[in-house]
Amino acid sequence: MTGSGGTSGGDPEAGPTEDGDPASTTDSEASASTTDSGTSTSTTERETVVEPPSERSSPDSRSRPDSRWWYAIAAVPITYAVSFLFGGVATIWALLLVLGAGMAPNAGIVVGGGISLLIFGALAVAAVTVLVTVLLPVALYFDTELVAEVDSAGWNPDRDLYVIAALAGLFVSGLSAAVALYYLYRRHVHLGVP
Known about the structure:
This protein is mostly helical. It has two domains: 2-50, no CATH class; 69-191. It is 80% helix and 0% strand. It has helices at 2-8, 14-19, 22-35, 38-49, 53-63, 69-103, 107-149, 159-168, 175-191.
């Protein structure tokens, strides 16, 4: 098949092609594809230049872990910040309600409604903060496992240390947020995500 392509194109190397020399077979295929229509040329070039999708995706997947556990880790400092801000706003609001109750004759209804709203808001924010704080050791366990599998990370996080620190954060206020922020910083430096 390659010999007929080289002969029809008037290639002077058609003789060695018919003899079955592998180097000249490759040359005659290239010359045959260039003398034929542009369609076969682009097909031949695509096959030699473009790698299969499985080979292209493997380096990308090895350079970045396919993990979404870092979202749960990032939620911890966010909920702590929201709790802190809510606590400050709630304190100021409670002071204004109490001070305003003494000045207005019908302020008892406003104060009662305002305090119940503060209590409900505080419970909602506390519940979300506790939920993500309890989830932090689990998220760190799975994310550190996936990050350790990445060859190009250059970082092998100590899973046990992070999980123990996150568990201690259940009893020490603010430690969970500090552990989460430090882990996310190190993850960003070595992986670029988040």
